[in-house]
Amino acid sequence: MKPGIHPDYHPVVFRDRSAGFAFLTRSTVTSLQTIEWEDGNTYPVIDVEISSASHPFWTGKQRLVDTEGRVERFYARYGRK
After folding, report:
1. pTM above threshold 0.70
2. Residue 15 burial (CB < 10 Å; 0-12/13-18/19+)?
């Protein structure tokens, strides 16, 4: 690898606040927020909206969407042809 052309690759904690789940990995992303991890070291933390702990595909808990109401609203607005 050529020196000086690659971004800094360092440990980062990704945290899913909705599920109370966090994991430590390596990434090039940075953050001004930090967190003290289980090993006693401080790492930058990135808050994510969804992870494997909260995604419906992985948890098996899906939210129902009112598709019938949306279809009826579409027909009311544009009419049935």
Report:
1. no
2. middle
